[in-house]
Amino acid sequence: MTHTCTPTGAARLARLVTLPGVYAPQHDTRLLTRCLRREAIDEDTAVVDLGTGSGALAVAAASLGARVTAVDISRRAVLTARFNALRNGLTVTVRHGDLTDTLPDDCCDLVVSNPPYVPGPSARLPRHGAARAWDAGTEGRAVVNRVCDAAPRVLRPGGALLLVHSGLSGVAATLDRLAGNGMEAGVVDRAYVPFGPVLQSRRAWLRDRGLIDDTENREELVVIRAELR
User: Fold this and answer.
1) Domains of the chain by range and CATH?
2) Sheet (strand 218-228) strand order
3) How many Cβ atoms from other residues are within 10 Å of residue 131's Cβ?
4) Beta strands 183-194 and 46-50: pairing type?
5) pLDDT of 153-207, one tens digit each?
6) How far is 18 from 189, CA to CA, in rounded Å?
7) 89-109 as b/e, with b when 16 or more CB fall inside 10 Å?
8) How much is the pTM?
9) Which strand (E) or helix (H) includes residue 193?
């Protein structure tokens, strides 16, 4: 089965189809899309979408006129993103690769990323299946850290990274890591959303780790914007 997403609101997404095993756009996608649309994007702006999944962010950037390259390690996600760009009549270059490995230095003005960020009991990351899109190790930072380290290499001076992840994954740790990579970073948007099925299934583990208490039922999502100095 496929999933078609046609959300409403200020950060309305394009008509998208997701193949089984590909992350379907959710609250975090909409929040990051809202921030993306605040950027000064035109036909001279080069955007890279790391971990594109359905291609939602790549399509949003292309609809604003940007020249967009999207990357994903999942071949099924690559096919999905290419299809969604075509479905919306937009040009997006979609590459199969691991984050920035297929990209040259200083190639873009803006990096956007909605990486896996959900903490879980296993330090081993899944290699296949839908969980690959959200499981991110015991700290929820296995991929977030790599995005923070990789983005500066592909950004031009003055370029920016827009990164969304859960408050459970350590916002301060992200800000510190980006600062250590020569970027000036801060939280530019946030939202509180009900726990989804994955977090609900991990309530006991999250409580034992001290990440939530017995009364919590909403997850904080944050968008961090970091500019290369």
Assistant:
1) 27-228 (3.40.50.150)
2) 92-96, 67-72, 46-50, 108-113, 155-166, 218-228, 183-194
3) 16
4) unpaired
5) 999 999 999 999 999 999 999 999 999 999 999 999 999 999 999 999 999 999 9
6) 26
7) ebebebeeeebbeebeeebbb
8) 0.92
9) strand 183-194
